[in-house]
Amino acid sequence: MDTAQINKMLQKYFNAFYEADAKELAKLFHEAAHIYGLDENGVLRDIDRNTFIKIIDSVAPNSKNTDFIRKDEILSIDFISKDAAVARIKLRFGDFAFTDILSLISLDGEWKVISVLETSKPI
User: Which domain holds residue 80?
Assistant: First the structure.
């Protein structure tokens, strides 16, 4: 179980969010991945990977905002097996702070996000 590989993948994840790089995020998410969270009315949201990538692609890159303060952190990584792990992370994207739980799986030696449970609060 190689935490270093997951750390490297999560750094790419943070960089892709910071730069709003939809193409890089698409590489990090498995094709069948879903993002779950509550909307502003408390209703469960279930967004598939392709829709999520389109949403990210539609926003202006945060890296061009000189007032944007980057804040990302790996809170924990827990291995379920040699090929499955859960990572708890914090990141800032736009005007929101996120604390997310990422389910990860290693396919052909490459770690991919298969689901995200996201929570956010306005900054």
Answer: 3-122
Residues in CB range of 123: below 8 A, 6 or more apart: 92, 95, 96, 97
CATH of residue 36 = 3.10.450.50
Give mean pLDDT in consecutive 10-residue pieces for the chain, a chain of 123 residues. 92 90 94 95 96 85 61 96 97 89 96 97 87
- H-helix or E-strand containing 74? strand 73-81
Counts for the chain of helices (H) and strands (E), in that order = 3, 6
CA distance 120 to 123: 9
Total number of domains in the chain: 1
- The partner residues of 117 in beta bridges, in order of sequence, read 36, 101
What span, in angstroms and rounded, lies between the C-alpha atoms of 85 and 93? 24
